[in-house]
Design goal:
Strand content: under 5%
Radius of gyration: 16 Å
Shape: globular
Oligomer: single chain
Number of strands: 0
Order of helices and strands: HHHHHHH
Helix content: over 70%
């Protein structure tokens, strides 16, 4: 189930996120997000893809400081989404029991639980940004990108919970 959810998330990322950004750093991150979700990738390629996501997210975040506020905020949103997705890919989908079982054995919070909470916070941020773009003159590509990022994280969360 994790593989199918990740593949669906990758498709959503490719469609929505590649359409909106105009800068090469943002497009590179969107393409990496889509590629790392392929269910046929071996574990080593998934680890390398997650590392690539971190590097691309950092490059995008650093470059966002020189942009106007609205564009910089959009790039920061993309960068945090890429870094969070990299962590979720590294944690993998091992079911909800993995998140619960860590507490029973005194292991503290599991990575799955932490990524789930971070994803929920990211989804709330995405929803807030999407609500700000509800006026008729809003950029359709930006709305599509926010919807795609939200859908991608919902799919990744579902895959992580179901395993």
């Amino acid at each position: 189930m994790w593989g199918m959810a990740a593949a669906a998330a990758g498709l959503v990322a490719a469609v929505g996120c590649c359409a909106a950004p105009t800068r090469w750093r943002a497009r590179a991150l969107a393409v990496l997000m889509a590629l790392t979700c392929l269910p046929v990738l071996p574990d080593l390629a998934r680890i390398a893809g997650a590392a690539g996501l971190i590097v691309a997210a950092l490059a995008l975040a650093v470059g966002s400081r020189r942009l106007p506020v609205a564009e910089g905020a959009a790039d920061l949103h993309r960068a945090i989404g890429g870094a969070l997705m990299a962590g979720m890919l590294l944690a993998g989908g091992h079911g909800a029991g993995a998140a619960i079982g860590a507490h029973a054995h005194g292991g503290g919070a599991s990575p799955h639980l932490l990524f789930a909470l971070a994803s929920l916070a990211y989804l709330a941020w995405t929803a807030r940004a999407a609500l700000r773009l509800r006026h008729p003159g809003a950029d359709r590509a930006a709305r599509a990108e926010l919807a795609a990022m939200g859908a991608m994280f919902v799919l990744l969360l579902a895959g992580m919970v179901v395993g």
